Amino acid sequence: MLELIQAPWPWYVSGALISLIMILMFFFGKTFGFSSNFRTLCAACGAGKKAKFFDFDWKSQQWNLLFLIGSVIGGYLSANYLNNGQPLQLAESTVADLKSLGITFDGQMNPLQLFGIENLFNLKGFLTLLGGGLLVGFGSRYAGGCTSGHAITGLSNLQWPSLIAVIGFFIGGLAMTHLFFPLIF
Amino acid sequence: MKGLKFIIAGIFFGIVMSKSEAISWYRIQEMFRFQSFHMYGIIGTAVAIGVISIFFIKKYQLKDIEGKVIVIPDKEKGWKKGIFGGTIFGMGWALTGACPGPMFVNLGQGYLAFLLIIVGATIGTYAYGVFKDKLPH
Prior knowledge:
Number of strands of chain A: 0
Helix content of chain A: 55-70%
Distance between the termini of chain A: 42 Å
Shape of chain A: globular
Number of strands of chain B: 0
Largest sheet of chain A: none
Structural class of chain B: mainly alpha
Number of helices of chain A: 9
Number of helices of chain B: 6
Oligomer: heterodimer
Strand content of chain A: under 5%
Largest interface: A-B, 125 and 113 residues
Order of helices and strands of chain A: HHHHHHHHH
């Protein structure tokens, strides 16, 4: 059993469990959506004094911050106890494409070349990480949600704005991957 | 103790995101290059089961653990925010390989550089809050 859990999970198991989490949150009386936490963090830091958008009772969102803390713990447990040490099975074509950009596939979850701690201390690495975060934070709030709020919950609830947002996610993702990656890397 | 269930749900989320490899920068690249079905399979399965579940939750007016009928809020109307905001989000998703949840799961995985991405995302959210009324929605 443990061996089965330690191996990577097939997409249909993962997909089913993600919808289970969404349903679980409904039964807890909440709506699954992760990016709201950034708004809550801003509000908790006193941003409500500067902008109306953050002037709300952030303590009512504490449940989502607890979910956030749990997700960090879940990542830790997975990396340290639920891992069989096998390299990630990435498509050959992706490995080749990344190689032509100068990014070597290392079999890990994320390339250390881009996410190793030393990237915090060189200008390009620093700007890429900070800038990427800025885009995600600004964009998710502007769009009114992220992958969990729009692509999972919103699409499941047949929301038009969510379908439009998901189309936007792909326009941006495709543009970054195919147009900007050759310029950045 | 009321909060404990949210921490446990979060832990479960972190494990699912890790074991599905949806937090992997490589997998997101594979997705945006249409070189694997993996991510599409995950999102497709989640949405298919989600649509059916929400249909029954609404049809039978199921109640949450506090006994209140489950209400799933509609998303705010408007297409500009979806296209503009979504495109900006997508660029960041491809660059960092992480949407908001996976940023924190990756931090737990030991990729400490994600702290800077998280700082960026918080500043980005703050910037949106400040400029919100000047943006087309």
